[in-house]
Amino acid sequence: MPSDRIRTALWVVPPIVAAVLLLPNPWVAVLFAAIVWGAGQEWTALMGLPHDGGRAAGVVLLPLMAATYVWGDLDAVGVLLGVALFWWVLATIWVVCFPVGLPGGASLRGRKLLVGLLLLLPAWLALITLHGSAEGPRWVLLLLVMIWLADAGAYYAGRRFGRRKLAPQVSPGKTWAGFWGGLAAGLAAGLLGPLLLRLEMPALGAYALTCLVTVAGSVVGDLTVSMFKRQMGVKDTGHLLPSHGGILDRIDSLTAAAPIFTWGLGRAQGWL
């Protein structure tokens, strides 16, 4: 990867890891809410919605407050994450069918806001729920490492072996070789992580399937955001992080991976 990308990652990643491992769950919830708020502002700008900070804050923070109401009620959380999984199935179909079916025009402003909420709110809820579970901070760390290594594996495998395009109309740079390389790297991290972090791993079959779907889902998250960027004719959702783009560019994979992993792990361990 280019050196400036590495420098930015070294500046961002250690504080995130330290916060996940050291801060209590309520403070982690606040941290992730701030990240989601920033991503929400980028989403409203990307979709051509009014550049009103108050509107962007309300779009993100009001649903977060509603989610906090059910925070701790794992039955309700399970239902909400189930809705998120259904959304990501629809998003997969959307990506495959691109450019058909994308919302456009001012009259569909509400739909654009809804898509933004479906991208961001379940990920926030999933992360704070996972962080609050038994051994939660280390599980969140493992999830992040899975996504980061999958991204790195896809990058290097794509550069070395990439031929066939994965989704040329959505993201021309992505290849099937990159997809398989990322899947292998992310799955390896997911399976080895519990041993290295001394986590209590559930039944191997269910856990391996959860990791597999999580890493594959992270690609859908990336492609979904790329689909909307392509529709709007922009390369990045923002410019906050040098050579990485905006906040949403960095968490697009996590928006899908977090709900999938939390739901799958919670079901496998019996707490969700």
Cα shape: globular
Q: What is the N-to-C order of secondary-structure elements (H for helix, E for strand)?
A: HHHHHHEEHHH
Count of spatially separate domains: 1
Largest sheet: 2 strands, antiparallel
Please give the alpha-carbon distance between the first and last residues: 38 Å
Question: In what range is the share of β-strand residues?
Answer: under 5%
Keywords:
272 residues; 9 helices; mainly alpha; two-stranded antiparallel ribbon
What this model shows, in words?
- This protein has 272 residues and is mostly helical.
- The protein has one domain (3-269).
- The chain is 76% helix and 3% strand.
- It has a two-stranded antiparallel sheet.
- β1 (165-167) and β2 (171-175) form a beta hairpin.
- The chain is globular and about 45 Å long.
- The model has no long low-confidence stretch (mean pLDDT 85).
